[in-house]
Design brief:
The chain is about 30% helix and about 20% strand. Strand 3, helix 4 and strand 4 form a beta-alpha-beta unit. The chain contains six helices and 14 strands. About 5% of the residues have low confidence. It is of the alpha/beta class. The strands form two sheets. A seven-stranded mixed sheet has the order 4-3-2-1-12-13-14. A seven-stranded mixed sheet has the order 5-6-7-8-10-9-11, covered by helices on one side.
Length: about 325
């Protein structure tokens, strides 16, 4: 009997130890899972119900727009680029602005009523009567990303219906991608691209660059390889910021045109980003912007400095 009791005691201790171990592992896993979910949500990796749909430009035959990123500093450079943006659009025509993230420096916003929305966006672009289609940057993800989306309901000039969103405008299908959430956002993009018909230019606008000569250089090689194998052939143009430069790249073995327009308010200084990588067709480290005209059979791209002086022009003809 005593031996049986000892065996039962040992079995009970083992079972209790096993139970405690499993409980600790499950508790740790749940805690890590919750932390991961909170982190993803703070970066805008969830898929909320869209606030509105963009359809006002669908019937246009010709489209003209401006691309700027990394603009939201409230500094002199942003204000000067904003003045040039207003003048340029009066002269050449513009339908809207693609706003490529890092919309509010240095740490995004704390709420939809954060005064930085006024001082670093509304007041700066008060003379630009155009919608700004915005995506999140890495600095925006330091603050309340949902507030940036909800600001669309407060200021009709600011347009961010979702963190990843798609809209048709004239001869172009646009895909706004939250690059804080790669690879999740790229899975979304791959699914969206599969539903695009023929005869449309396909343009991605996002914050982080895939290729570039700036301070950050290229994205990590797994990202570039995944892009090349899964998405590159389906995208005609890739707009990004993150690098505070203006650049046009054509990468050997990777289809598509890659434009960086990240000098909207905080250009590099001190020699950062002035060494062109292979495939760079144009590189400038001053403040400025990119103007684009899209027709059914042709695209035209032109970079301007902060004073409105033309720097570089490129045209792309449809081949397929």
């Amino acid at each position: 009997m005593a031996q049986k009791r000892r065996r039962l005691g040992r079995f009970t201790l083992k079972f209790f130890g096993w139970f405690i171990g499993v409980a600790l592992v499950l508790s740790l896993g749940w805690s890590l899972g919750q932390t991961w979910l909170q982190t993803m949500e703070s970066k805008g990796c969830n898929a909320p119900k869209p606030l509105f749909h963009i359809d006002r430009f669908q019937k246009k035959q010709q489209l003209r727009f401006v691309v700027i990123g990394d603009a939201g500093t409230g500094r002199k450079a942003q204000k000067k680029v904003a003045e040039t943006l207003a003048t340029l659009c009066q002269q050449k025509g513009c339908d809207f602005v693609l706003y490529l993230g890092d919309n509010i420096y240095p740490n995004g916003v704390s709420s939809v009523n954060d005064p930085r929305f006024e001082t670093q966006f509304a007041e700066v672009y008060q003379d630009v009567q155009l919608p700004f289609y915005a995506v999140l940057g890495n600095h925006d993800a330091r603050g309340d990303v949902e507030a940036q989306r909800l600001y669309s309901l407060k200021n009709p000039k600011w347009r961010m219906p979702e963190f990843n969103y798609r809209f048709s405008a004239g001869p172009v299908e646009f895909f706004g991608v939250n690059s804080n959430c790669i690879p999740l956002s790229w899975f979304w993009l791959k699914e969206q691209l599969s539903g695009v018909g023929t005869g449309k230019w396909r343009m991605v606008f996002t914050h982080h660059n895939l290729f570039g000569s700036g301070h950050h250089r290229d994205a990590p090689w797994p990202q570039k390889l995944w892009w090349k194998w899964n998405l590159a052939e389906q995208v005609d143009v890739f707009f990004s910021g993150h690098e505070h430069v203006m650049e046009h790249l054509q990468i050997d073995g990777v289809p598509g045109e890659y434009f960086i327009s990240g000098a909207g308010g905080f250009p590099y200084r001190g020699g950062k980003g002035d060494s062109a990588r292979p495939g760079s067709k144009f590189l400038n480290t001053s403040a400025g912007l990119l103007w684009v005209q899209a027709k059914v059979e042709q695209l035209e791209f032109e970079f301007f400095d902060l004073y409105g002086a033309p720097l570089y022009q490129y045209q792309k003809e449809r081949t397929k």
